[in-house]
Design a protein that fits this description.
MbnP-like, Metallo-mystery pair system four-Cys motif protein, MbnP-like_dom, ten-stranded antiparallel β-sheet, signal, globular, about 35% strand
Length: about 270
């Protein structure tokens, strides 16, 4: 019996160690069948960005409070790709990535991993930052994950927040309120017309604000987003938030950098 147990352990131990090895699913496998996984790494000036990182913007220190975004409509070489719908945070054609900071840690809603229904081949990878129009206006209380997160939703009329970035000033300020040391960018559709905010529009919004990203991809690479090019030169203040309003000066700078009628900045494959 002892000899049998030792033999069984010798068979199982390598498999257990392989399953626990960090990074084995984050950026793909090098097996012949390819990998169905792809991770997103958030960066600032080329360094990994986490909840306890300090972002030096215009000489002031800032901390990440929340970064989440919806990615949808994946394809490689113009061939549609489906996600694995059995996993949390994703359906067949849409996924929610990112996290909300809780102290210096990522809370239980954090997710930085995409998993596709089949192996992800090398080629020209394309995806949309945002929620497709046909699914953008619904009741989040009845929606399935990941479209049921209420803080990523504006209203039936406007739909979802495609991307939510919120920062907080790290320096103490005894004069200004906490709100004065906060800054936010929320990307979503605008110019949506309906009878009320509780009604879905009957036609597409005037500004859908959906950004299409195209990147050359090789098996084993990681999807990266560096926030530094996006935030460069932005005046971080409470009265300079961007809620996708094209009439605000901050949005006139940020929206093109996000890929709305401009070239999206910060995206790469490494």
């Amino acid at each position: 019996m002892l000899r049998l147990s030792i033999s069984l352990l010798a068979v199982l131990l390598p498999a257990l160690l392989t399953g626990c090895e960090p990074g084995t699913t984050a950026s793909g496998s090098t097996s012949e069948s390819g990998s169905a996984g792809l991770s997103l790494q958030l960066q600032y000036n080329g360094a990994a960005l986490t909840c306890d990182s300090t972002l030096n913007i215009a000489g002031k220190p800032w901390a990440l409070q929340q970064f989440q975004l919806y990615l949808s409509e994946f394809s490689v070489n113009n061939t549609p790709l489906l996600l694995d719908p059995t996993l949390p945070y994703q359906q067949a054609n849409i996924a929610l990535l990112g996290a909300v900071c809780d102290g210096n840690a990522l809370n239980s809603r954090g997710n930085w991993q995409l998993k596709f229904a089949s192996a992800l081949p090398s080629g020209s990878l394309s995806f949309t930052v945002g929620v497709p129009q046909l699914r953008n206006h619904q009741d989040p209380l009845l929606a399935k994950t990941p479209l049921n997160q209420s803080d990523m939703f504006w209203s039936w009329q406007q739909g979802y927040k495609y991307l939510r970035l919120e920062l907080a000033g790290k320096a103490s300020d005894k004069v200004n309120s906490p709100q004065a040391n906060a800054w936010a960018l929320h990307l979503g559709a605008t110019g949506c017309q309906s009878a009320s905010v509780l009604r879905a529009p009957s036609k597409a919004c005037a500004q859908p604000n959906l950004a299409r990203i195209n990147l050359p991809f090789q098996r084993g690479q990681t999807l990266q987003l560096d926030l530094a090019p996006l935030l460069h030169g932005i005046n971080m203040s409470a009265d300079n938030h961007c809620m996708s309003d094209i009439n605000r000066l901050s949005c006139q700078t940020l929206l093109p950098r996000l890929g709305i009628n401009g070239k999206a900045l910060g995206w790469s494959m490494q």
